[in-house]
Task: inverse folding
């Protein structure tokens, strides 16, 4: 069964290796886990639904709890504390376009607000209900989860928008095809969610971001049915696909998704190369991606992430041996790990590896083969379970991500890491409620472009004395770093979308005129403004977001 | 000096080889050239300007003539006949953003309509003035034509939007870089025009369409300055770049363009392979593009285009020898020519060629080396001069283009060619004014995607008895084929944009809701609707387009 207050299936558990305890103690300090709330107690808190009876609406309290939060850190703290604050008034599970059309008509007539829901994996507050005079209906797309058609000649697959990652791949693989979209959230997130939040998968170097994969589909909007035809390319005016991608439910509910798929590749392997320093590693990565080497995946961990990954991997003896061997070649402290994937025909993979070795060698890279890379690939979707394991020991983990042009990668990366390490300690004399805990901060680049790279930073800190303090600490970290990102040529999100948590920073990034243009689009499709309010752009009657509330608490 | 009534520089002339005459006679029949108007006579027809005096506005008649038409066939007929119908009331040549801001303010105050003008190469009526109570100002971007900055680390170049193709490449090449965007109109078209019409270059397989190359820039809109930041990728909501691309001047004037450039490649060559039949050639091309072979360019001519190209190439003896050699290997009548380019390191080019040969051989392709391919590359921007040479002999040439998914390529291609060959003969008893001339129709695919392909059809027919008849014939061909395209899963344009000529078909392609969304965008940026009226979407006070007028003439 899916966890009601965390990630994934209850049966799946990730145990931290013994090496992890000592490492975390040294880096973050001792801590006491906070106490989890019980589901039965939360059920008692769920208020009566404000929704009328409807054949398509479920008002059961547990169902409403299970659709009240995503996977952001505030969501996590709300679920663990049981302090959910808001619940949807009901959940619907439409099975087809007719159900969706009926629901949206009903919601317009009754002035009900609508939150579209895919896998519930948002880390930016996309699917959270909020303070509202109007009733809120969450529309769970989970029953529209099938491969509807596969055109093998044009390599276009048609899916119900609620199809989660594993079912997308299983249904395609049965016919010899793959979509190749593997975000970290793959286990739960859905193909429709990927489209409307502009998701990116780990193998985007080969398969492209969802922007490249999304070919067309159907959207049920409050003003009617939007059918987006598939063309290989078109110069016929602005591309409506690019408006839908990133619209985050504001213009309607995506019901059918047509995507560009490929035949399963002849061969796929992942490999690891170590570099003596960050500068050498980064230059090598930039050089690789600017030289058209056919890689399917590339990830570059900075020195602290490399150290952390090796410490948390277990296999103490093997790691010690590896480090000894690396040291012989001059790659010691400060070393950086590059993981890369090759996918294609055997001929293509062999040639790409040749070119890669030549370039990485010129930057003192030490190639270690496919053992560690393939291990990484095996375990790559288990990472979200890591948060659960850390939580049990009293540690809190969150991530921040952006993308920027190459000339700015080092600058922005340093500013983000430095801020996370220091901001909680600033003004600590007047800010005793927060204190200044030790933060363990590390970063990787995981999506590479000729123009620049994503920056993905993880931070681990110990839970505060209580939930409120922990949330206040997070809010200060999140807010101050988000400001740094948008004021330093970074995008507020490379792969997680805007939701409610990033909305306050979007005007700085895009400018007032662009925000007005997005607003006019939303108004066209949703004149009553019932679709996913407060996400992406501010709604006229916007109450304070959770982040703003928490931020206010920090300041007060 | 630039031709006032045709393509390119007056000094450049393309002579048809002697083989061409006999070929055209056989395929299209005898004809008499129509008489060209003289510039001095047209100057006398230019009415007084309705524009007030302004330091940035030129009201000279010849300048207004030279900005009154693009390069569509009706434009061509208007320029050759001297029957321009409409002229801009003046032309401005802004030198910077301040000039543009001043101009747009002035135009808003004075209710002046604005037509942005790049290279004047539109083949869809983008830059043509029209019947209007309001004065019309054409804004020629030709003085904003410099490389402003080059970030070699992020590979981003910043250009004035009016920079034409040759100057884009020359300024980049001086520093070892290339944009790699080579549309047929390269000699005259501008980087800003490429962006706002969603242009595609001949080497898009390597460099991408302008959609992939455009990274950001500045737009001067009637309501203010829109600054689009560069990010390698972003999930922060809908992408404003995708709204600007294809906006065709409706939301403002693009003034600065930031594009993704690359280092000049180590090696580049073009090659030719012949296939015994269209089906074998098309399957080979689809297979190549779906197999991730690193080609920079691919073009596949159908049998009639292959025959035509060989006949018009001159070099009679060499071609006869080639055909003899091909026949020995079983490739005779019905043969199809594939031209392809390889660009990259020597290693990459060698490996791509190996893979290509393997795949094309499996489809009975006969590889002939780089001689013909490199000849094609040398001459590739001279093709527009071909129209001038044909015109002098009394022949009219035009093209139609679309794109569709692979499963539909053969179907749509056949429908387009059949319609062009037969539609003028239909109802000829009641339609004597038109008659039923012989059309020579041929097609190539020139932009390939894993999902499908562009379809580019050329048709040659003899000029009518007069200009009116010739225009009426064109209108019938254009209208009926455009209907076929949008009703058969084709886009109304793969690479030329919408303009005024394709606007009537856009709602069929995109649907009413999408058109409303585009309208709401235009209204946001241009509340007075002064920007490029009648392009892209219908304007409220739309007079009949030239196409509709000509069409009406056909029917009456």
Result:
């Amino acid at each position: 069964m899916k966890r009601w207050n965390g990630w994934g299936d209850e049966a799946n558990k990730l145990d931290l290796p013994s090496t992890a305890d000592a490492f975390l103690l040294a880096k973050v300090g001792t801590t006491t886990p906070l106490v989890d709330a019980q589901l039965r107690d939360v059920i008692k808190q769920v208020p009566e639904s404000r929704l009328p009876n409807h054949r398509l609406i479920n008002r059961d309290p547990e169902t409403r709890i299970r659709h009240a939060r995503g996977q952001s850190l505030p969501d996590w703290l709300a679920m663990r504390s049981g302090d959910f604050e808001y619940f949807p008034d009901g959940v619907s599970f439409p099975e087809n376009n007719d159900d969706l059309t009926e629901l949206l008509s009903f919601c317009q007539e009754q002035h009900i607000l609508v939150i579209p829901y895919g896998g519930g994996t948002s880390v930016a507050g996309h699917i959270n209900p909020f303070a509202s005079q109007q009733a809120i209906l969450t529309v769970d797309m989970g029953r529209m989860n099938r491969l509807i058609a596969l055109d093998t000649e044009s390599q276009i697959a048609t899916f119900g928008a609620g199809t989660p990652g594993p079912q997308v791949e299983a249904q395609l693989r049965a016919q010899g095809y793959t979509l190749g979209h593997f975000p970290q959230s793959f286990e739960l997130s859905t193909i429709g969610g990927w489209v409307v939040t502009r998701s990116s998968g780990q193998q985007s170097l080969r398969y492209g971001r969802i922007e490249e994969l999304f070919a067309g589909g159907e959207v049920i909007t409050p003003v009617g049915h939007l059918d987006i035809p598939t063309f290989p390319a078109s110069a016929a005016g602005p591309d409506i696909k690019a408006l839908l991608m990133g619209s985050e439910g504001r213009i309607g509910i995506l019901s059918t998704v047509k995507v560009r798929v490929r035949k399963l590749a002849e061969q796929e392997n992942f490999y690891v190369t170590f570099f003596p320093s960050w500068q050498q590693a980064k230059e090598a990565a930039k050089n690789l991606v600017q030289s058209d080497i056919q890689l399917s995946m590339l990830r570059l961990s900075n020195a602290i992430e490399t150290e952390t990954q090796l410490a948390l991997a277990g296999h103490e003896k093997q790691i010690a041996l590896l480090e000894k061997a690396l040291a012989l070649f001059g790659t010691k402290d400060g070393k950086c790990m590059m993981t890369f994937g090759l996918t294609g025909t055997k001929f293509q993979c062999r040639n790409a590896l040749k070119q890669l070795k030549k370039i990485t060698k010129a930057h003192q890279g030490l190639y270690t083969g496919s053992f560690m890379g393939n291990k990484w690939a095996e375990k790559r979707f288990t990472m979200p379970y890591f948060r659960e394991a850390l939580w049990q020991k009293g540690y809190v983990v969150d991530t921040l991500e952006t993308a920027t042009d190459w000339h700015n990668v080092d600058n922005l990366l340093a500013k983000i890491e430095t801020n996370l390490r220091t901001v909680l300690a600033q003004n600590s004399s007047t800010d005793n409620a927060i204190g200044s805990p030790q933060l363990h901060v590390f970063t990787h680049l995981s999506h590479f472009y000729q123009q620049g790279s994503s920056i993905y930073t993880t931070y681990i800190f110990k839970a505060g004395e209580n939930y409120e303090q922990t949330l206040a600490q997070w809010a200060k970290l999140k807010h101050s770093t988000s400001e740094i990102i948008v004021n330093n040529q970074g995008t507020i999100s490379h792969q997680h979308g805007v939701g409610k948590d990033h909305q306050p920073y979007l005007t700085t990034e895009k400018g007032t005129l662009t925000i007005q243009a997005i607003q006019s689009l939303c108004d066209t499709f949703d004149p009553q403004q019932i679709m996913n309010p407060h996400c992406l752009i501010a709604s006229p009657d916007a109450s304070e977001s959770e982040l703003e509330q928490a931020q206010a608490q920090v300041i007060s």
